[in-house]
Write a structure and sequence with these properties.
heterodimer; A: mainly alpha; two-stranded antiparallel sheet; 5 helices; 9% strand; flat; B: 79% helix; MnhB (chain A); transmembrane helix (chain A); Multisubunit sodium/proton antiporter, MrpB subunit (chain A); CPA3_antiporter_subunitB (chain A); cell membrane (chain A)
Chain lengths: 140, 124
Amino acid sequence: MKSNDVILQTTTKVVLFIILAFSVFIFFNGHHEPGGGFIGGLMTASAIVLLMLAYDLEMVKRILPFDFKVVTAAGLLVAIGTGLGSFLFGVPFLSQTFDYFTFPVLGELELATALLFDIGVYLVVVGVTLTIIQTIGEDQ
Amino acid sequence: MLSLSVNEISGLIIGIIVFLGSVLSLISAIGLVRLPDIYTRSHAATKSATLSVLCILFGLFLFFTVIKDYVSARILLGIVFVFITAPVGGHLISRAAYHSGVSLWESSIHDELNGKKDKQHTSS
């Protein structure tokens, strides 16, 4: 029997953007308020899992043609790269700094190098979660 | 004559909204215990629980906006999100129950999906 998932799929199309926007918000909010790379990555991964539930694995693989193991590796490389970058300035491994910059539209923002490390955490969390889900979900 | 400031009056209104939300939540819980089958229960659990969460979140939003002077878009986003997703969750649970053969309450007299389900079985 062909199942009719039109309510779930239509709702997913709307809700997916709310979840993704909120995950980005939480990711950038993590320096001064609750949030950060881990929870933002988990929320992005859960949005993609919702897409997998409403549609199917092949559809998601067509939309996001990444190998998520490579995403994990890229996240680890970014994290290590931010650690190694501190050697360029002659300070110990993983030293962090921040400064204030003025942007044309956004105004004055605080940019910290901890954000780059958080991008690594984000990519690792998304990659690991989706690798686990895809490996469990697909048929042998 | 009792004189109230703006904050006290709005605090009273916010208290009423939050109390209404919690009472609706209690009614939803009672409905979950008292109703006979899964379809009436999901009716109670999705409708009144959604409205109770919306009331409580709206009271929270008003509290932070009026009294604490902090407009939180996250709460509005939460209201929209719960309003969209909770009925869909109830729909999916009821549909999964129907397709896995959970029987209706014995006093139910009408089952519109029954004929359609048989027709789909014979056609496929």
